[in-house]
Amino acid sequence: MIIRSALLNVMMGAARKAARNLVRDYGEIEQLQVSKKGPADFVSSADLRAEKTLRAELKKARPGFGFLLEEGGEVAGDDKSQRWIIDPIDGTTNFLHGIPNFCISIALERDGELVAGVVYQPLGDEMFHAEKGAGAFLNEHRLRVSARRKLEETVIATGIPFIGRPGHETFLKELGAVMGQVAGIRRFGSAALDLAYVAAGRCDGYWETGIKPWDIAAGIVLVKEAGGYVTDFQGGSKMLDNGEVLAANDHLHQPLLKLLKTARG
């Protein structure tokens, strides 16, 4: 049996509580109030309800911590060294189209370092969780990144820029460079789950640009604790700042990074 820290128990409990209404809302999508933030960027009453629940549960357990929220923005706490980074529904477009690939993502950042992450896929009851130095898990099972060494045997996940987002031409160059070297490319529509799948060895790698901190913060912890590498496209650690992320095992990370750098010129 896994012995989890009080911190992870708090995060997992908050995710499960928010998920109850989320699953109910998913079953009643036609009745949801939906508004547009951008040309293809939606926010629903389900997002707002889930975020409210997460914020209330986490604040109750750790009153001094701050928040970085997808919908609510940045909220300072009395403890300036620690903040929650939250996406109440990562994969909102999937959710609103009845595609069952979305999740709740919660990360804790301490003194500028990501130290814990939870990615919960409620429809499959898949709770991915990790804490710095303690490993990554899916429910009760320890996770390890894929052991594949050859690009031609790999399946790589990515995200595709949609209407209103910049970088379409650059992405097509990246896609062309990678697709010619790998067994397959997948676009699932949830960055947090893409990273969780890399941690679980379901995907061998994942790359995306123009991504927000709340989309990837928890997943970064998962991949690192599962033995993988996560960097920006310069091979650095500024993923949350510049919106670039590349995750893979130690054999595939550098070859993928080289392909992306070449494609971007």
What does this structure look like?
The chain has 265 residues and is of the alpha+beta class. The chain has two domains: 6-142, 2-Layer Sandwich (Fructose-1,6-Bisphosphatase, Chain A, domain 1); 151-264, D-Maltodextrin-Binding Protein, domain 2, CATH 3.40.190.80. The mean pLDDT is 94. It is built from eight helices and 15 strands. It has helices at 6-26, 45-61, 92-96, 168-179, 191-200, 213-225, 239-242, 253-264; strands at 34-38, 41-44, 65-69, 73-75, 79-90, 103-110, 113-121, 126-131, 135-138, 141-142, 155-158, 184-186, 205-208, 229-231, 245-248. The protein starts with 5 loop residues before the first helix and ends with a helix. Its cofactor is Mg(2+).
Radius of gyration: 18 Å
According to DSSP, the number of beta strands is 15
Contiguous uncertain segments of 5+ residues: none
**Within the CATH hierarchy, at the fold level, what is the topology of the largest domain?**
Fructose-1,6-Bisphosphatase, Chain A, domain 1
**What is the terminal-to-terminal distance?**
49 Å
CATH C-level class of the largest domain is: Alpha Beta
Tell me the CATH architecture of the largest domain: 2-Layer Sandwich
Average predicted confidence as pLDDT:
94
Could you say which structural class the secondary elements and strand pairing correspond to? alpha+beta
What shape does the CA trace take? Answer: globular
What is the share of helical residues? Answer: 25-40%
Strand content: 25-35%
Note the main sheet: 8 strands, mixed
CATH superfamily of the largest domain: Fructose-1,6-Bisphosphatase, subunit A, domain 1
Integer count of domains: 2
Strand order, main sheet: write it out: 4-3-5-6-7-8-9-10
Order of helices and strands: HEEHEEEHEEEEEEHEHEHEHEH
Total helical elements: 8
InterPro entries: IMPase, Inositol_monoP_metal-BS, Inositol_monophosphatase-like, Inositol_monophosphatase_CS, Inositol_monophosphatase_SuhB
Cofactor: Mg(2+)
Binding site for Mg(2+) 2: 90
Keywords: Hydrolase, Magnesium, Metal-binding
